[in-house]
Amino acid sequence: MLDLSHQTRRRRIGLTPMIDVVFLLLVFFMLAARFGVTDAIPVTLSGGAAQPYDGPPRLLSVLPDGLRINGIETTDPVAALSPLMKSDDDIILLRPRDGASVQHLLDTMGLLRAAGWSNLVVLE
User: Fold this and answer.
1) Rounded distance between C-alpha atoms, residue 62 and residue 56, angstroms
2) Where in the chain are the domains?
3) Do the beta carbons of residue 60 and residue 69 sit within 8 Å?
4) What is the pLDDT of residue 26?
5) CA gap 25, 19 in Å, rounded
6) Of 6, 58, 77, 80, which one is least surrounded by beta carbons within 10 A?
7) Has this prediction a pTM greater than 0.70?
8) Quick check: 96 and 122 in contact, CB under 8 A?
9) How far is it, in rounded angstroms, from Cα 17 to Cα 23?
10) What's the CATH number for 59-122?
């Protein structure tokens, strides 16, 4: 006869090690992934040396609600700056005023770069 009193129990597979491995993989991929593309702003450093300024004043003030070129309000900075520019390498001074957002300054810089003017100086 068979002895049924001494049955072997089946061992259950432990899920804890598998959950730990999945959790570690999740943490690894979250830390290693790039969720968004960051834009870089090209900035040229002058090295602290004074540069000679030539030509008419080209001061573009970035206000919270608009733009001013040499103190005159404008909606189209490219059209207003065109008569003041001798060449595409002329310096344009950008001065953000109190309350102006960084995004507004960056949009203005992008607009000027699209017009072919890349020699932009941001003042404090």
Assistant:
1) 19
2) 59-122
3) yes
4) 95
5) 10
6) 6
7) no
8) yes
9) 10
10) 3.30.420.270
What letters, b where the CB count within 10 A reaches 16 and e where it falls short, cover 5-40? eeeeeeeeeeeeeeeeeeeeeeeeeeeeeeeeeeee
Taking the C-alpha atoms of residue 54 and residue 74, their distance in angstroms, rounded to an integer, is: 23
pLDDT at 5: 62
CA distances from 100 to 14, 65, 77, 103 (A): 59, 8, 16, 8
What's the Cα-to-Cα distance from 25 to each of 20, 21, 22, 31, 33, rounded to whole Å? 9, 6, 5, 10, 12
The pLDDT tens digits along the chain (124 residues) read 555 566 777 778 888 999 999 999 999 998 888 777 677 766 655 555 666 666 778 889 999 999 999 989 998 999 999 988 888 888 888 999 889 998 999 899 999 999 998 888 888 7
Q: Are 76 and 40 in contact (CB under 8 A)?
A: no
Residue 104 structure tokens? 């507004």
